[in-house]
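Table S2 (continued). Query chain:
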Amino acid sequence: MFRENQVHATSGPLALGISLAGVAAGFASVVSSSSDPISVGVGVVLITIGFLCAGGCFVVEPGDARVLVLFGTYKGTVKTPGWFWANPFLSKRKISLRVRNFETQKLKVNDSHSNPIEIGAVVVWKVVETAEALFEVDDYEKYVTVQSESALRGLATSYPYDAHETGQEALSTHTDAVSHALKGAIQERLVKAGVEVVESRISHLAYAPEIAQAMLQRQQASAIIAARGKIVEGAVGMVENALELLAQKGIVSLDDERKAHMVSNLLVVLCSERSTQPVVNTGSMY
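Corresponding output:
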C-alpha cells in the first residue's frame, strides 16, 4: 500500500533566479567568445541547463497538492501553498484537497421488511492521502461514487422504512442514527482510496410507486387508530370526573344501572365523529 510522504520543495523564485543567471552566463560566453569552440560549447550547455531547470518550477494553490513522480517512482507530495522548484524530470500531478460533495442516484431497493423503496443520499468527502488516492485505485472520484451507492444499498436493507415496534430504528424516523451508520459504512469502503467522509445524509426517501398508495392507507389507518385511542382515553377521564362531581355535590343519586346508562350516553357523545342529537326523556328510564 502506498503511503503519503510529504516533502518540502526548493523555493521557486530562488531556483528561477539561478536558472536565469545560468542562461545569461551562457549567452555572455557565446557572444564574447564566438571564435572559441570550447567557450561556445560551454555557453550552449549553460543555456540548455538554465532553460531546463527553469521548467522545474511549479505552483501549489491553497487547497491543492502536487504529487511528484520520477520515471514511475513516487517521490513525495507537496501540500504547502506557494511557488516551488523540483527536479524538472519529475511529473507533478495536481490533486485537490478541497471538500467536495455529490448526490447519489435515487436507488430502488428493498428495506429490511422487503418493501420496495426509493432512497438517495448526499455524501461530503475530501482526499487526505494523496498517494493512496492516485495509486491505489484507478479513478478515485468514480470509486467514491460507486462505493457510496453500494454502502447506501446495504444500509437500506438493514433498516425498515417505518418503525413497527417501540424503540425500533427506522429510516424515516431515526435520521441521526441512520446518517451515522451510513457515514461509517461509506468510510469503511473508501479508506483504501485515501478519502475521508466528512458527512453523509439521506436526501430522498419514499416508498416505490407500486406500493406507495397502499402504504399511505396503512399510515393513515395507524394514525386514525392512534387518534381514536387518545379520544377514548380522554372521554373515559371526563366521564370519571363527571361521576365524581355528581357524587360529591349530591346532585343526584345513581345506582349501578343508571351509572352504566349515563356512561354509555356520555361516551357516545364524546367519542362520536359527528355531532349527536339530544333526546329529551320526560318519563322514567324504566
